């Protein structure tokens, strides 16, 4: 198991496809689905300006790092569908657009984290892009479902996601640093991935 620091190599995608046949990775993805459901029951942390931090992104990002973009997308699909029917969707109606948002978010995490040498900047950029995706698509789905003005919804969402970004990044960095030695010992990530995450 070796590092492929970017998704522009054929080896990267061969490894990502191979994860679909790895029973340990499939089991890990299933555990992360269960973890997402557990995390959804933990109260969100209010910040300011109406922003609040929820916790599902932690399990999704860890699954993306371990399982890669191909299995990660399938995980995102299964996790969103199962979470909706198990938890009741948190008061939101079922809409396939939200499933797509989850799948794309996990895919973005995987492009930055899978078989990569993690840095704080890499984590920050990955979280920034997933937050942008949440703003763009979330406002679109709200416009379709409720008829709310896209720009009004997107502007409010953008501000909240911007406020959350540094806190989410710090939590992710701390989580990865804590989990990396265990994941390396279990051979779920390459041994070259350092336990300490540099800037």
Walkthrough of the structure:
The chain has 199 residues and is mainly α. The protein has helices at residues 10-18, 23-40, 56-87, 96-113, 120-146, 150-185, and strands spanning 45-46, 52-53. Helix 3 (56-87) packs across helix 6. The longest helix has 36 residues, at 150-185. The model has no long low-confidence stretch (mean pLDDT 90).
Features:
single chain, 199 residues, mainly alpha, two-stranded antiparallel ribbon, 6 helices, 2 strands
A few lines on this structure:
With 199 residues, the chain is mainly alpha-helical. Helices cover 70% and strands 2% of the residues.
Distance between the termini: 24 Å
List segments where confidence is low: pLDDT < 50 over at least 5 consecutive residues.
none
The number of helical segments is 6
* Biggest sheet overview: 2 strands, antiparallel
Gyration radius over CA: 17 Å
* Category by helix and strand content: mainly alpha
Q: Which word captures the global form?
A: globular
Beta content: under 5%
Strand order of the largest sheet: 1-2
What's the order of the H and E elements?
A: HHEEHHHH
**Helix coverage percent of residues?**
over 70%
SSE topology sketch:
Blueprint lengths: L9 H9 L4 H18 L4 E2 L5 E2 L2 H32 L8 H18 L6 H27 L3 H36 L14
Antiparallel strand pairs: 1-2
Helix pairs in contact: 1-3, 2-3, 3-4, 3-6, 4-5, 5-6
């Amino acid at each position: 198991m070796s590092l492929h620091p970017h998704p522009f190599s054929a080896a990267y995608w061969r490894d990502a496809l191979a994860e679909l046949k790895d029973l340990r990775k499939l089991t890990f993805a299933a555990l992360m689905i269960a973890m997402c459901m557990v995390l959804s029951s933990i109260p969100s942390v209010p910040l300011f300006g109406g922003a609040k931090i929820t916790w599902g992104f932690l399990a999704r990002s860890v699954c993306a790092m371990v399982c890669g973009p191909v299995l990660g997308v399938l995980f995102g699909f299964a996790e969103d569908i199962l979470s909706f029917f198990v938890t009741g969707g948190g008061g939101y109606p079922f809409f396939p657009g939200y499933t797509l948002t989850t799948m794309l978010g996990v895919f973005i995490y995987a492009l930055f984290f899978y078989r990569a040498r993690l840095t704080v900047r890499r984590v920050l950029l990955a979280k920034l892009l997933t937050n942008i995706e949440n703003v763009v698509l979330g406002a679109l789905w709200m416009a379709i479902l409720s008829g709310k003005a896209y720009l009004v919804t997107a502007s409010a969402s953008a501000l909240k996601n911007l406020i959350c970004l540094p806190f989410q990044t710090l939590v992710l960095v701390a989580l990865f640093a804590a989990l990396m030695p265990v994941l390396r010992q279990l051979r779920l990530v390459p041994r070259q991935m350092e336990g300490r995450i540099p800037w």
